[in-house]
Specification:
90 residues
Amino acid sequence: MPLHAGKLGEISAFKKLYMDHITNGQYRQGGTEDDQQKMMKRQMNRRVFTLAKKLDSLVQRASVDILFRTLPPRYDVVLTVKLSEPQRRL
């Protein structure tokens, strides 16, 4: 089960609110952009903006400074191994 299950609503509602508008606004039909296509593109941009705002509260992005304070120190281990005959030929 996803960590934030249900935070973006039911799948059918999500598709209707976001996926359909975003998908429809991405493509141009024909050579010139008419009023309907411009409207679809504006709707797409609004839905992308709204979705990004909702996701900001769900996705944690920590800066490097925070990670350095919380993670244990890094240790590098170097192992020396002999190459096999086929590896040496490469």
